[in-house]
Fold this sequence. Notes:
This protein is an alpha+beta fold. The chain is built from five helices and six strands. A four-stranded antiparallel beta sheet has the order 5-4-3-6. The chain has a two-stranded parallel sheet with strand order 1-2. β3 and β4 form a beta hairpin. The longest helix has 17 residues. It is globular and about 45 Å long.
Amino acid sequence: MTAIQSIVHRPRGVPVRLRYEVRVTSLLAALLVRQSPARIRQILTWLRRGARPATVELASAMRDAVVTVSLPCAGREGCLRRSVAVVLLCRARGMWPTWCVGARVLPPFAAHAWVEADGAPVGEDLPPGYFRTLITVPPATP
C-alpha cells in the first residue's frame, strides 16, 4: 500500500526578505546550470564585473541561507545549483567569491562545485587538496 507524503519545509532563523532572495536566486541558478560549462563560466564572468572580493563571513552566511531555504540546493547532488545561487546572492550584495568546479583527486571519480573566499572553501568539510579545480571564476581584478 502506498501513502502520500509531503515535506513541510519552514526555514527558521532566515529573515523573510532573504528567504525570497534565496528562492529567486535558486530558480535563476536552476536555469543557469542547464547551460554548458563554458556558457556558465561566460555568464558568471560577465556578472562579476565591478564586484569586490567576498569575505568568508558573507559567503558563509549566504551559503547557510541557501542550504536552509532551498531543499534542491541542500542535497548531495545540488552542489552546482547551490554554488551558483551563493555567488548570485553575494553579487547582489556587491561582492564575489571564487566559484569553482572540480573533480575528486582519489577514485572513484566525482565532480563537485563550491565557492571559495580568501582562498579557502566555504562550508566544505573536506581537507585541502581533496578536489582538483578545473574551472574557476574568481573576483575581477581592478
